[in-house]
Write a structure and sequence with these properties.
The structure holds two protein chains of two kinds. Chain A is 53% helix and 0% strand. Chain A is mainly α. The N and C termini of chain A lie close together (8 Å). By secondary structure, chain B is an alpha/beta fold. Chain B has one domain: Thiolase/Chalcone synthase (Peroxisomal Thiolase, Chain A, domain 1, 3-Layer(aba) Sandwich). Chain B is 27% helix and 26% strand. Classes of the chains: A mainly alpha, B alpha/beta.
Chain lengths: 78, 351
């Protein structure tokens, strides 16, 4: 599991956000127009691409792309 | 999860009735233009139907049922009536009994209410099958629907733009030649707070709780309004819906590829699309109605069939997969093969 591919998948899920660029250190909640629908899009993408279903409790303290990537990796046992 | 089957039960016809009043997502004042566009793109909801204050779910079901019974000349032969709804006319008596009288159905009729939401239509079909297969009941009416807009706060962005109102009527007959119905069902009360109206019934009667509106991250609501934790519901759906579908298919000895059409409860478009991807089924096999009617609770499966009437036509018989899931949590799947059944979609008109 590679972080660049992970970022590519997030960008594909958020294709409605214009000119979005993400780095591992980017704060997801700072994305323009961030709302609860973005959380659902993330959860759906991660379930489909990485077979991990994240709960609200797990996502509560996640802010950066890197932290989310690490959480998914942990859940996959990598 | 529980598997059970039913035989000798056939759907003859499904009629749906929606209010004439249309509410468009783009006009919802709590959304700015980009929020409305994002909501519409991901939920799939372009518009909903909203019943006026003096029209109830039972009025919509009554309208559909009257037309259905007239078209099939079946009024005098109904011996079982089930009303599935979470927006009954009164705390008591049961709305099904009021509908028995309004429809002119004989008093020698077993009638009762079932208090289920989004899973309710498939539960209703399951109960119908259990009664009908004995051969002692010959014709039955399953009425399913909700007036969800009565309980959503207009400024709650997580519920108000999502739900629409609808009522449906399904005519079911005893038929010893009908193909077997295969069900898989489940319940999980850990989800009781994920979709809930906390106040106003026995646990928290009016007068014992603060009815004031409160602001929260999703907008405004009070304890007497429908509250929904969208992420919990989303997680529940992605976890349980694919597995109940696969369980029902295994029980019916039908492969995913053999199903002609999947008719899922229309919770939101993102859930349906994600489940299609998880099952590796082309999205075109998933029939929808959410675009023009929103989430219509227990009416969504029969309404979707009425909206997509062209898919019901032709031979040979088609393999169907119905799956209802939601409030409770509660879920139920039905896999069956059926010949053509008649459908009709109507706008409500006041008598």
């Amino acid at each position: 599991m590679e972080i660049q591919e992970f970022i590519k998948n997030i960008l594909a899920a958020f294709d409605d956000v214009p000119h979005l660029e993400l780095e591992p250190t980017s704060n997801l909640r700072s994305i323009e127009g961030w709302n609860s629908m973005h959380v659902l899009l993330l959860v759906a993408m991660i379930d489909i691409e990485y077979q991990v279903l994240l709960s609200g409790e797990e996502l509560k303290n996640v802010t950066t792309v890197q932290a989310l990537f690490t959480l998914v990796k942990q859940r996959r046992g990598e | 999860m529980a598997n059970n089957s039913a035989h000798s039960t056939r759907i003859e016809a499904i009629y749906a009735c929606v209010p004439s009043e249309v509410a468009y997502t783009k006009d919802y004042p709590a959304f700015d233009e980009s929020a409305a566009a994002m909501f519409e793109k991901n939920t799939g909801i372009h518009a909903r139907r909203v019943a006026p204050e003096n029209v109830t779910c039972s009025d919509l079901c009554l309208f559909a049922a009257k037309a259905l019974l007239d078209d099939f000349d079946a009024k005098d032969s109904i011996d079982l009536l089930i009303f599935v709804s979470q927006s009954a006319d009164h705390f008591l008596p049961a709305t099904s009994i009021i509908l028995q009288e309004k429809l002119g159905i004989p008093t020698q009729c077993l009638a009762f209410d079932v208090n289920l939401g989004c899973s309710g239509y498939v539960y209703g079909l399951n109960m119908m099958g259990q009664f009908m297969q004995q051969g002692q009941f010959k014709k039955a009416l399953l009425l399913a629907g909700d007036k969800s807009t009565i309980s959503t706060h207009p400024q709650d962005k997580s519920t108000f733009p999502l739900f629409g109102d609808a009522g449906t009527a399904t005519l079911i007959s005893y038929d010893s030649t009908a193909s077997e119905w295969f069900f898989n069902s489940g319940s999980d009360g850990k989800g009781k707070d994920a979709i809930v109206i906390p106040g106003g019934h026995s646990r928290n009667p009016y007068g014992t709780f603060d009815e004031q509106d409160v602001v929260y991250e999703g907008g405004v609501r009070s304890l007497k309004h429908l509250q929904m934790d969208g992420l919990s519901v989303f997680n529940f759906a992605l976890k349980h819906v694919p597995s109940t579908i696969l369980s029902a298919l295994a029980f019916a000895s039908v492969s995913v590829d053999e199903v002609d059409y999947f008719v899922l409860h229309q919770a939101n478009g993102l859930i349906t699309k994600t489940i299609a991807k998880k099952l590796k089924v082309e999205p075109a096999k998933f029939l929808t109605s959410i675009e023009h009617f929103g989430n219509t609770s227990s009416a969504s499966i029969p309404l979707t069939l009425c909206v997509n009437a062209k898919y019901l036509l032709g031979n040979p018989p088609k393999k169907w997969l119905f799956c209802g899931f939601g409030v409770g949590f509660s879920w139920a799947t039905l896999c069956f093969e059926s010949k053509v059944f008649k459908t009709k979609l109507m706008n409500y008109e006041r008598n």
